[in-house]
Design brief:
Blueprint lengths: L1 E2 L10 H5 L12 H10 L3 H13 L3 E12 L8 E13 L2 E12 L8 H13 L6 H12 L12 H11 L5 E9 L6 H17 L3 E4 L4 E7 L5 E11 L5
Parallel strand pairs: 1-2, 4-5, 5-8
Antiparallel strand pairs: 2-3, 3-4, 6-7, 7-8
Amino acid sequence: MEITDSKSNPIKEMEDWCKILPQKKWEVGRSAFELAKFIIEGAGITYISDTINKLLNQEVKLERAIPEYNVDFDNLGNGRKHDLAIFGKVFGGNTERKVFIGIEAKVDEPFDRTVEERYMEGIKKLLNEKNSNLPERILNLLKRYYPQIRKEHFKLRYQLLFSLAGTVDYEADIHIFMVLVFKSKSYNTKKGISNLKDYQVFMDSINALFLSTQENSYKAIVKNKAGVEKEVYSIYKIIDKVIT
């Protein structure tokens, strides 16, 4: 599998990966650095490939990976920037299906603020005659996931809503949202447990089917930005040590 930036420049070393990130995100022990280390210096590619093979119960050929890959999920501004996007294929009989994997890397960083906090942030800007697409964007996302929007939906973590949308809106046959949690020296157990709970609450809220305890995987049906229902898989993997 080749690793490149969005302009097809090859990424072979940690330094190559670092160049495409804001400097403040590149910190030893934090998510961006740990993901790059896992892929470049560890056995991350094999680990991800094996995980996806088990999830789909068939062999996936991973062809290309791009860090910081943007997928538009509406027309209201910047899209979902995946920490790492992986493109692949599965073959069955005479058919070929495209696979897209959108990866979110974590150590113990939260899944952004709550939907309510982000929504009110946008409303405050509008009330003060400043531009903000946040309220409209959030309402559109909520309508995708829920036939009826309820108060508890505003307690969900905002990043989970747009990350899943930014996965299912890539043009592919199989969509997979993968959270990789690295237990580096900076990992805080309490924060990590809270993140997992936030993730599980979101999966439950969209009526995702729990598939496997071992793989911590789910399958859900959600609408893409065109309003078409799509099947999407989601995996939450905790990596306790460096896999070489």
